[in-house]
Amino acid sequence: MHALEFRIVLNVRFFDLSVCFYRDILGMASLGGWSGPHSRGARFSVGGGPVIEIVGAPEGAPPFERPTFDSLMFGLRVPDVDALYAQLMAVNVPIVRPPEDAPGGRRSFAVEDPNGIRIWFYQGMETA
Q1: Which of the pair, 118 or 99, is modelled with greater confidence?
Q2: Could you tell me where in the chain the CATH 3.10.180.10 domains are found?
Q3: CATH homologous superfamily of domain 1-61?
Q4: Strand partners for 110
Q5: Class of domain 71-128
Q6: Rounded Cα gap, residues 58 and 63, in angstroms
């Protein structure tokens, strides 16, 4: 198999907050979106190819039922964990785990988006 794109699709309860979080707080580039009778969505570039797509209820409709993300989390390798941590602390993003060092030279911390999805930011563990 040769996939042309890797996309994570998240059905979210808090659509507008999620758009703000991924676009404005994390600074991901918007790849556009849509609004239709059954849903609305937005896509964001993670960098290097992967895409995060969020899907929510149409404008003016009741929000989707609260999705369960108990086991969902994802990681993003960034160039400077401590600088990003300071940036997110400055805008009061809830930190789940503060920066810490791990074996093998990895340093990481975790936040949760407005829907409770855990996102790990890490540096180190470079791959070839």
Answers
A1: 99
A2: 1-61, 71-128
A3: 2,3-Dihydroxybiphenyl 1,2-Dioxygenase, domain 1 (3.10.180.10)
A4: 97, 120
A5: alpha beta
A6: 8
